[in-house]
Amino acid sequence: MTAESKNIAHCPDCGAEVRLKKPPYVGQLITCRHCDSVLEVVNRFPLELHWAETAWDDDEGSNLNSGRNGRRRNGR
Predict the structure, then answer these.
(1) Helical H segments across the chain, by residue range
(2) By Cβ atoms counted within 10 A, which residue in 8, 43, 54, 72 is the most buried?
(3) What is d(CA 38, CA 2) in angstroms, rounded to the nearest whole number?
């Protein structure tokens, strides 16, 4: 196991491998290159990613679970 392999996780949305060049920190936001999901580092050892808890729209009462990554899609 190399030091680089510690910086590999899988996107919870598309399952793609996410590789980080530098050691991450808890709370760091990362964008999956395959599906554009915004992810947050929740654990360093082992590296674990979850969807970021970020609201993407300005609607009051918007639901973070309304779409992929909490984003509301237009017209829905």
Answers:
(1) none
(2) 72
(3) 26
